[in-house]
Amino acid sequence: MLGFRKHKVTSYPPEIVTNLKDLMRFEFLVQSGNLLPKHPIYSVLAGRHESKLRGRGLDFEEVRQYVAGDDIRNIDWRVTARTGETYSKVFNEEKERPTFIVADQSTGMFFGSQRFVKAVSAAHVAAISAFYTIKRGDRVGGIVFNEEGMDFMMPKRSKAQVQHFLQCVVNRNGILPQRKKIETNTKLLNSMLQKTQAAITHDYVVLVVSDFSNIDDETKQYLRNISQHNDVMLVHIYDQLDQALPDGKLVLSDGKKQISWRNNKRSWGKKYVSSFVEMQQHLRDEFSPYRIPIVFFNTEEAIEDQIMHHMGKILKK
Predict the structure, then answer these.
(1) 45 within 8 A of 132, measured Cβ to Cβ
(2) What is the C-alpha separation between 181 and 135, in angstroms, rounded?
(3) Which of 1, 105, 137, 257 could form a disulfide with 172 if both were Cys (CB 3.0 to 4.6 A apart)?
(4) What angle do CA 30, 306, 228 make, to 5 degrees?
(5) Which domains does the chain have, with CATH numbers?
(6) What CA–CA distance (Å, rounded) separates 101 from 127?
(7) Which of 176, 195, 34 is nearest to 107 (CA)?
(8) Can you give the pLDDT of all 317 residues of the chain as single tens digits?
(9) CB contact at 8 A, 140 and 159
(10) Residues 6 or more apart in contact with residue 307 via CB below 8 angstroms
(11) CA dihedral 107, 111, 116, 120 (to 10 degrees)
């Protein structure tokens, strides 16, 4: 009787390596209407954004005093009769905004010290954004990439497209535990942004999900170029150890060299914390003039909980 050697298949929890079932569950959360607010605010993960154009569009926005040139069909006669002055209704016109998601699944994203690894948190952001876009009736596509290659999908309006996109995320994500060398993703991210810029035209929502480690001037220029005719949003995934290192003697390594680290030595710990805060502020300052919002999500909490918290703060403003 011939014997066959069985290959051991390593199974990882979904917080470490995601799977399609784990990502598809976000469809229910989005469809239930409990995850994201119904009010069409300009916010990250929104598949359709409010247009800056004013007209007789889809959504009523406000009532204001009549201005010469206003369409008389928009006069609010009830308010006019009550106040004795002429008031007009203002509408906010919506335009279709395909969503293009750039999802980083490179080796640098395979890190997490608490609950999730960055790559899984990024996958959750991509899934929520894709399902929300389809729910709003818009098209969704994007790029999923790592050092092994990329998957490119032009936006389509179908659940099958979302499932295919998420399967690509799962496939790229599943490669990460096999990688033994961590590489910086600067050139890789730049290459994906270049492909994005060449593929899309205008009026897109471009969502870039990464840890943005070691971005350079070329990265920033691509993002600025894309934002000229599109809404660009950045989702920065970070880990607790990116913010601060624990007290005690540590040995840190980049895979080639090692150093002995103590937070209390020459105020290294305080400087480490300050550098993270400064990095966040620098990114905000860098992209704010171009109306590119950046949201910071951590690997300790579930993405859906962080979204609810983030949206709650926006709605209170």
Answers:
(1) yes
(2) 39
(3) 105
(4) 80
(5) 20-46+97-316 (3.40.50.410), 51-94 (no CATH)
(6) 10
(7) 176
(8) 444 444 455 789 999 999 999 999 999 988 876 665 554 434 445 444 444 333 334 455 677 787 777 778 888 888 888 888 888 877 655 567 899 999 999 999 999 998 999 999 999 999 999 999 998 888 999 999 999 899 999 999 999 999 999 999 999 999 999 877 766 667 899 999 999 999 998 889 999 999 998 789 999 999 999 999 999 999 999 999 999 999 989 888 767 788 898 998 989 999 999 999 999 999 999 999 998 999 999 999 999 999 888 765 544 55
(9) no
(10) 35, 36, 45, 128
(11) -10
Task: Tally the residues of the chain.
Answer: 317
Place of tokens 């961590």: 182
* Distance (Å, whole) CA 315 – CA 77: 30
Pairwise CA distance, residues 145 & 192, whole Å: 8
